[in-house]
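Notebook, bench 3.
Goal today: get a predicted structure for N-acetyltransferase domain-containing protein from Phyllobacterium sophorae so we can plan the truncation constructs. The sequence was checked against the plasmid map this morning, with no discrepancies at the termini. Length recorded as 123 residues. Pasting the sequence as submitted so the record is complete.
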Amino acid sequence: MIADFASWRSSVGADKHQIRVALRDGDIVGWVFVRGSRNQKAELAHLCVEPSSRRIGVGSALLEAALSICEGRASTLVAGTEEYWTSAHQFLEKVGYQLSPKAADGRRVYSKTIIAPSAGHTQ
């Protein structure tokens, strides 16, 4: 189950930052932090899943929650990763994120276009 944990406005403006947590048997087993939109891009700032809860859909559910946060606020969700986080690279590519040119600091940057649900679509 994904639950809303926190939502706040930054001190520099109306950008909204949100955190969602994944619960398993009442315990938090993962979380995602999305930084508010600037220039139609939101940032997937953190995605963490407890090792014992990996490969069972928790990370995918958290990424879906991140995309839902962004709908109507941004057209792209961007995630930066360190070069040595190969498991993160594989996961992001598996769930449809595209590798962009490297950032100036040498990090890998992935992005995904946010598609709003069509009329009549239910989740």
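The CA atoms of residues 12 and 36 lie 11 Å apart. Residues 8-14, 118-123 have pLDDT under 50 and may be disordered.
Flagging this for group meeting.
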